[in-house]
Amino acid sequence: MTVGDIERLIHLLARLPGLGPRSARRAVLQMIKRPETLMLPLAAALRQAAENILTCATCGNLDTANPCAICRAPGRNAALICVVEEVADLWAIERSGAFKGLYHVLGGTLSALDGRGPEQLNIGSLIDRVERARGSEAPVVEVILALGTTVDGQTTAHYIAERLGDTGVAISRLAQGVPVGGELDYLDDGTLSAALKARRPA
Amino acid sequence: MTVGDIERLIHLLARLPGLGPRSARRAVLQMIKRPETLMLPLAAALRQAAENILTCATCGNLDTANPCAICRAPGRNAALICVVEEVADLWAIERSGAFKGLYHVLGGTLSALDGRGPEQLNIGSLIDRVERARGSEAPVVEVILALGTTVDGQTTAHYIAERLGDTGVAISRLAQGVPVGGELDYLDDGTLSAALKARRPA
């Protein structure tokens, strides 16, 4: 193929996670069939997002405003801070609709293998945030560590719990157990063990 | 989520084949980390493609020029026309590097189920093209029916072979080696090359 425009577009699309060169080609061919309804709106949405999206200086969420819509929302409970690894996790919890407090996005986990220490993550700003709120009229009462149940996620949770020890806030973690709608037969042994250990009266 | 820009972008990306809402979200989060290197170039490439890409009036290929680069290329053998279902198939054959003739893109196959008859496909233009070349100094010598080995693909091949019967051109098909039920776009280059080289009279 010598078609520069198309090749360049395929090359760029193929760099998105989840799309390889083959699916990028399919995507381009489908888009070309209806440039007005998909291709041009997508181009405009990408440009707009690139120009307008900011990182919230308070919690690390992505939004078109700083502080973000969640930090500014009047109805939310500022006494609860939910600590997550990535913005994707924040979005997942928001979709569940089960949490009405505020967030703090770490930007990853501690990792000995990848050489990521506490100073590469938004841990200092979390401690600051809790400390600053301590004397105010809206103190933080509980920090929920909603980190992944990987080794790195749990190491990070331990580390943060230790750093927060002096502040006097309650520290909690997500419950571990059988996923809703999950079949026991398909669960890994670790999850089954955790669910058994954490069993509750019916 | 109330972030309009981000949500709209995810919604549009999720409409691409191969990307669902979840992978669209991942793609957006990755892009936002580097707007200058991926997001803005992708926006520009999409707009450029939407504005510049044309369908070749001769063969049905997509290009930024009409006639397309393949139809205009001086080194190619105009005595050979390779008939394919979709532009994706043309690209697949071009990638194999095994064919140096010209193409004709049908835009699909005949299909009783989907109610697609000959008038919905570029079959008339193929017959015209062969007929017009007949008296000229560059007659078409052979038409290669490179259609999928699906029922619809083979029906279409039969139909075209019949319509071309009076023109006196040789008609060939890709050699067996194309897996039954397979689509050209998913074939590896080696199989495509072998099938082209071993083509047989229809």
Concise overview:
The structure is a homodimer of 202-residue chains. Chain A has 202 residues and is α/β, with parallel strands linked by helices.
Detailed description of the structure:
Two copies of one chain form a homodimer. Chain A is an alpha/beta fold. The first copy, chain A, has two domains: 50 residues, Orthogonal Bundle (Helicase, Ruva Protein, domain 3); 140 residues, 3-Layer(aba) Sandwich (Dna Topoisomerase Vi A Subunit, Chain: A, domain 2). Chain A contains eight helices and six strands; from the N terminus they run αααββαβαβαβαβα. In chain A, the strands form two sheets. The first copy, chain A, has a four-stranded parallel beta sheet with strand order 4-3-5-6. In chain A, α7 links the parallel β5 and β6. The first copy, chain A, is globular and about 60 Å long. The N and C termini of chain A lie far apart (65 Å). In chain A, 30% of the residues are buried. The model of chain A has no long low-confidence stretch (mean pLDDT 90). Chains A and B meet through α1, α2, α3, β2 and α5 of A and α1, α2, α3, β2 and α5 of B.
